[in-house]
Design brief:
- The complex is a heterodimer.
- Chain A is mostly helical.
- Chain A is built from 12 helices and 4 strands, in the order H-H-H-H-E-E-E-H-H-H-H-E-H-H-H-H.
- Chain A has one domain: ABC transporter involved in vitamin B12 uptake, BtuC (Orthogonal Bundle), CATH 1.10.3470.
- Chain A has a two-stranded antiparallel sheet.
- In chain A, helix 5 runs antiparallel to helix 8.
- Chain A is globular.
- By secondary structure, chain B is of the alpha/beta class.
- Chain B contains 18 helices and 16 strands.
- In chain B, a hairpin with a 4-residue loop joins strand 12 and strand 13.
- In chain B, helix 3 packs parallel to helix 13, helix 4 runs parallel beside helix 5 and helix 10 packs parallel to helix 11.
- Chain B is elongated, with a radius of gyration of 22 Å.
- Chains A and B meet through helix 1, helix 4, helix 9 and helix 10 of A and helix 1, helix 3, strand 8, helix 9 and helix 10 of B.
């Protein structure tokens, strides 16, 4: 029982991390129907910038949470500027091009960011100083760290905040209008370019937040860390229904749970024929099944009408 | 999405590599200055080097490249001549991303570029498939660090390595786990690569033969960072020891997560996890864990301390893992060129089996398969933030050079305070070798 509970905790943490990153994918997709493949790399830049800020501040003896907060702020600013630039350089000129073109520039941006990060921060792994409370607590026989709780809480709050932003504010209404039809939104006095740029800026700030939490959780940061994370988060977004904010959360948590429980129990359930190396197979099998029966993901009806 | 991304990064890297080569193309000024009397342009010997320079293992790959680069610089500084003609050794560095597909593209590129020899690749997973291309083209290949036995078991005359293979390493590790670390139950994790799976398999065989029970066999991959699911499963089986066959990018976070989950088992790594990076990134979660490295501790290598100093001065970085082995692999090739008095791959190939070279890491002799003769394995424990050597098992030159004859007879050094000689005593072959080495020791100077 304690093992099952532990696997559920593992899955929830992993899922919250996926969800946090998936929110960035889904926001951009929801507004402009574009898959921003560079998002995973923005997460990576956020983590590495935060790390560069953390090291000298932590060495100066400031209290841990304060250092992380400052680092997060700096990382968020850098990532916002980066997101704005990416949109301006790689996506805006292609706004009216066939849909494949921005997809390819997105991959290009992703590679450029990875290589730049490699030149700036080097090829080595960076140990992230343990500044956030990471004490392990025992809950019904399973171990959970404070940081894991923080990650789950932050992911849920971020999702709630974004839903409020999109549904309850003037900016949100402009976002929804742009998503529906940029041209008509423009006629109604919405500056679509400004809204899209803002979407990217908000998404990038979230990426910085995700980067800081992910690197703190695993204790390492590396120029390559955004790639697999981005791919998994994208999968989570699709699973939940890309374009739907609550769907990103549901998809992320579901993917995390499937991976954890899959790795934990496939072996025992199949009598050792399939081992834990089938965890990804299992996760993507679920994705395929979901997409066969619900092509727009678990919660993505609206998008399917539009696309 | 994965595929176009890789293809793109490939072409970008290829372009970068070409640019890099372009910069190094002009021969260094020194041989050029001495050229006029000979009235002949220097003969350029191209040595291909392949390792992951991007991706999670980029730091280890760059380390290998640095090692090989240092060897070539030494060779160029020594102003080697073939038939009175100056020779310039030129490194052709490539990035195989630790990916077998990419490794074969690099190998094909080397074949097309008619390199005279290849130092590499780093990973077994890239080395084994690439070795067929080199064998077909008749290009000699010396891998510094591919330890999967299959590499030299294919019967290729072109395949050599300067490090003990996983059969030797896995056997030592399995026996050590059971006899010295007193593990009755073990769990094994690997990263599904040729190296990780290979060494884990050898470990498992040997641990079972020594009397341990395997309670879990789990798998991850060489890009993963979250291992909590498989570790939780293992925790439920309560093993005495967890063995991981893989590289440090996974080994370090795994150690941390073991600590977070409250797993008390001993953690044993093979060479891929036996790095300073592991300790740095695992932090206090590294304390008390074990690893092994083919060869002997850097500090105890015949040319070790000097090499560490030179490497640091040249690249302003610490040796990661296989740097000294890459240096030796390149030197073995250079020595073969010198002996053959030719840069012709066929002639280099004819000389390689006759190698008897005192390298930085050890004295290098090849057996008939191209494997290093009498490779030593050293076990380390993480203590106070660094790897401390525990025991060196086997090996021709090192124990003899280091230990008193009485100790060398046992086939190992530094057994201070270690119980359980029994397990290692089983390796009678090694004992004989060490004894032979004692005889060799005087003439080694």
């Amino acid at each position: 029982m304690d093992i099952l509970l532990q696997q559920i905790f593992n899955g929830l943490t992993l899922g919250s991390i996926y969800a946090l990153v998936a929110l960035g994918y889904t926001m951009v997709y929801g507004i402009m129907g574009l898959i921003n493949f560079a998002h995973g790399e923005v997460v990576m830049v956020g983590a590495l910038v935060a790390l560069s800020v953390m090291k000298p501040l932590a060495a100066a003896g400031l209290p841990g949470p304060l250092v992380v907060l400052v680092a997060l702020l700096v990382a968020a600013l850098v990532c916002m500027a980066l997101g704005f630039t990416i949109e301006r350089v790689a996506y805006r000129p292609l706004r009216n091009a066939p849909r494949l073109a921005p997809l390819i520039t997105a991959i290009g941006v992703s590679i450029v960011l990875q290589q730049l990060a490699m030149l700036i921060w080097g090829r080595s792994y960076h140990a992230v100083p343990p500044l956030l409370p990471a004490e392990s607590h025992e809950v019904l026989g399973a171990q959970i760290t404070e940081l894991q709780l923080i990650i789950m809480l932050v992911a849920a709050l971020t999702m709630a905040g974004l839903i409020l932003l999109v549904n309850r504010t003037k900016l949100g209404r402009a976002m929804r209008a742009t998503a529906e039809n940029p041209a008509i939104a423009g006629l109604m006095g919405v500056d679509a370019n400004r809204i899209i740029a803002l979407t990217f800026i908000i998404g990038s700030a979230l990426a910085a937040l995700a980067g800081v939490l992910v690197s703190a959780n695993y204790g390492i940061a590396h120029y390559h860390m955004g790639f697999i994370l981005g791919l998994k988060a994208f999968t989570a977004a699709v699973l939940g229904g890309i374009g739907n904010l609550a769907g990103a959360m549901v998809g992320g948590v579901l993917l995390g749970l499937i991976e954890a429980l899959g790795a934990g129990y496939i072996g025992d359930l199949t009598g050792g024929i399939l081992g834990s190396h089938y965890q990804d197979v299992f996760a993507f099998f679920v994705l395929i099944v979901v997409l066969i029966f619900r092509p727009s993901g678990l919660m993505g009806e609206k998008v399917s009408e539009r696309a | 999405m994965n595929v176009p991304a890789k293809a793109l990064s490939l072409s970008v890297l290829a372009a970068l590599a070409v640019m890099a080569c372009g910069k190094e193309a002009p021969p260094p000024p020194a041989p050029a200055a001495s050229a006029p009397p000979a009235a002949q342009p220097p003969l350029v010997v191209k040595i291909g080097h392949s390792a992951p320079l991007t991706g999670p293992q980029a730091h280890i790959g760059k380390d290998n490249e640095n090692g090989a680069r240092l060897a070539l610089e030494d060779a160029n500084a020594a102003k080697i001549k073939i038939d009175g003609r100056d020779v310039t050794f030129e490194l052709v560095p490539e990035d195989d991303q630790a990916d077998p597909k990419q490794g074969n593209l690099v190998a094909q590129k080397f074949v097309d570029a008619k390199v005279n020899a290849v130092v590499g690749h780093l990973n077994s997973g890239t080395t084994i498939p690439a070795s067929k291309l080199y064998a077909d083209a008749g290009i000699p290949q010396v891998s510094p660090s591919a330890t999967n036995p299959q590499y030299t078991n294919q019967g290729f005359k072109t395949a050599f390595r300067v490090m003990a293979n996983d059969e030797q390493q896995g056997k030592v590790l399995g026996e050590y786990a059971v006899n010295n670390l007193k593990a009755k139950t073990v769990a094994v994790i690997d990263d599904k690569t040729a190296y990780g799976e290979g060494v884990a398999h050898e470990f498992l065989k040997s641990a079972v033969a020594a009397g341990a029970k395997v309670v879990a066999e789990e798998h991850t991959d060489d890009k993963a960072v979250d291992f909590k699911a498989i570790l939780t499963k293992i925790k439920g089986k309560k093993p005495d020891l967890i063995f991981y066959g893989g590289m440090d990018p996974q080994a370090a976070p795994m150690a941390k997560q073991m600590k977070q989950l409250g797993i008390k088992a001993k953690y044993l790594l093979a060479d891929g996890g036996c790095t300073a990076e592991f300790i740095k990134n695992a932090g206090d979660a590294a304390e008390g864990h074990y690893c092994s490295l083919p060869g002997i501790p850097y500090e105890k290598m015949p040319g070790g301390p000097k090499f560490i100093e030179r490497y640091k001065a040249k690249f302003n970085a610490d040796i990661q893992l296989y740097g000294p082995y890459a240096y030796d692999a390149a030197m073995v090739v250079i020595e073969a060129v010198k002996r053959a008095q030719s840069a012709d791959p066929a002639k280099i190939l004819a000389e390689l089996p006759k190698t008897d070279f005192q390298g930085v890491t050890t004295r290098i002799l090849f057996d008939e398969k191209g494997d290093l003769k009498d490779g030593a394995i050293t076990l380390y424990v993480a203590k106070g933030g660094k790897w401390e050597p525990l025991d060196t098992i086997g090996g021709a030159t090192a124990p003899a050079a280091e230990a008193k004859p009485a100790e060398a007879m046992g086939g190992m050094t530094g057994m201070q305070g270690m119980a359980g000689m029994a397990g290692i005593n089983g390796m009678t072959g090694m004992t004989g070798i060490a004894a032979e080495a004692t005889k060799l020791a005087p003439e080694k100077k």
